[in-house]
TrEMBL record:
Signal peptide: none annotated. PROSITE patterns: CYTOCHROME_P450. PANTHER family: CYTOCHROME P450 YJIB-RELATED, P450, PUTATIVE (EUROFUNG)-RELATED. One of its GO terms (molecular function) is iron ion binding. SUPFAM superfamilies: Cytochrome P450 (SSF48264). The lineage of its organism: Bacteria, Bacillati, Actinomycetota, Actinomycetes, Kitasatosporales. This is Cytochrome P450. InterPro entries: Cyt_P450 (IPR001128), Cyt_P450_B (IPR002397), Cyt_P450_CS (IPR017972), Cyt_P450_sf (IPR036396).
Length: 378
């Protein structure tokens, strides 16, 4: 395939080589589609709640606007705060794996994605933000509605689902912030309010609400995909699973290889701010470029024998968490969750195996399972 393939149908140039994608994601003149782009290109939907949220969010902001929105989250989303979640991650993982083990005992198939893959990151990001455990399942359904915004082509049904989710989640997080103003806690909601009070350029109340909404949705949906994909990759490569079982130090490497081999995010788009050359092609201002992570992570120029799943692969590099200014703030937390799960799941269930045909999520932008049937067969 042409490494800079222009698609007339989709109106974009798809980049598939690792170096080209990494360069594009870091290029200061390749911008994310933002609020101005939305007003120009999505005239039918621009006034909808979902579009208002997404194209005003950190994901769809550039330059100083992006820095202003990202800075308070980066300050609050510190290595110390993430490390402090390790005990919670391990405790939640233990509880969910125990529940799954009971459901999958005696060879009975159980849906890993429903019982572990989704609940684990929902619980973790909920605790990070300050969402009570009892309310997290309700939020998982709303979050999935909001993530329809990540699809490159959205149907009217996608917009309707996303609108409903955004309205409900905005109301909830506005209430949460009011509660934290009255009674601060050791969570991200309180940390953002504290910075708002001390920062010379405070965010508005709506911006704070939308930051929490974004952290919540981004913090569980892609991680949920990663967990199922990593477990599936190991179960379908028993020789590699045996290596991980024999050497716990390989758990993190297995997560990294799973991200490379079959990651949860397929692609992301950038818009040229001025005429420039990308991957040997001269683009006019306003041209669309789509970096295809799934292809870049299997680029043979970067990863020899790219289709092989190898947990001892040396020098693994992935673009699964993007790169440049929009590199994912939650990458270290997602990796922590993946490594914790791999250790506890396969220690607890050494005879775990596929127990039916997996069902993948209906999505172009995100890779995940709706149903990953597993059973303890031994």
């Amino acid at each position: 395939m042409d490494p800079a393939h222009h698609s007339e149908e989709f109106g974009t140039r798809f980049l598939t080589r690792f170096a080209d994608c990494q360069s594009a994601l870091s290029h200061p003149d390749l911008l994310v589609p933002d609020r101005e782009w939305c007003a120009r290109e999505l005239t039918t939907w621009a006034a909808r709640p979902a579009a208002d949220f997404f194209y005003s969010s950190m994901l769809a902001a550039n330059g100083p606007d992006h820095d202003r929105l990202r800075r308070p989250v980066a300050r609050a989303f510190t290595a110390r705060r993430v490390a402090a979640l390790r005990t919670a991650v391990e405790a939640v993982t233990d509880d969910l794996v125990d529940t799954f083990a009971e459901a999958a005992s005696d060879g009975d198939p159980a849906n890993f994605q429903e019982l572990v893959g989704h609940p684990l990151p929902v619980a973790v990001v909920g605790r990070l933000i300050g969402v009570p455990d009892a309310e997290r399942q309700h939020f998982a359904a709303l979050g999935r509605g909001a993530t329809r915004l990540l699809e490159p082509i959205r149907s009217p049904e996608d917009w309707t689902r996303a609108d409903r989710a955004v309205v409900a989640l905005r109301e909830y997080f506005a209430d949460l912030l009011r509660a934290r103003r009255a009674r601060p806690a050791d969570d991200l909601a309180s940390a953002l309010l504290d910075q708002r009070a001390s920062d010379g350029h405070p965010l508005t109340g709506r911006e704070l609400v939308d930051l929490l909404l974004l952290v919540f949705v981004a913090g569980f949906e892609t991680t949920a995909g990663l967990l199922g994909l990593a477990v599936f990759a190991l179960l379908t490569h028993p020789d590699q699973l045996a290596l991980v079982r024999a050497d716990p130090a390989l758990r993190s490497a297995a997560v990294e290889e799973a991200l490379r081999w079959d990651g949860p995010v397929m692609m992301t788009e950038r818009i040229a701010a001025r005429p420039l050359e990308v991957a040997g092609a001269v683009l006019p201002a306003g041209a669309s470029v789509t970096t295809v992570f799934a292809a870049a992570n299997r680029d043979p120029l970067e990863h020899p024998d790219p289709d092989a799943f190898l947990v001892r692969r040396p020098g693994t590099k992935v673009l699964s968490f993007s790169a440049g200014a929009h590199h994912c703030l939650g990458a270290s937390l997602a990796r922590m969750e993946g490594a914790a799960l791999i250790g506890r799941l396969f220690d607890r269930l050494p005879a775990l195996a596929l127990a039916g045909e997996p069902v993948r999520r209906d999505s172009v932008a995100l890779r995940s399972f709706d149903d990953l049937p597993l059973a303890a067969v031994g």
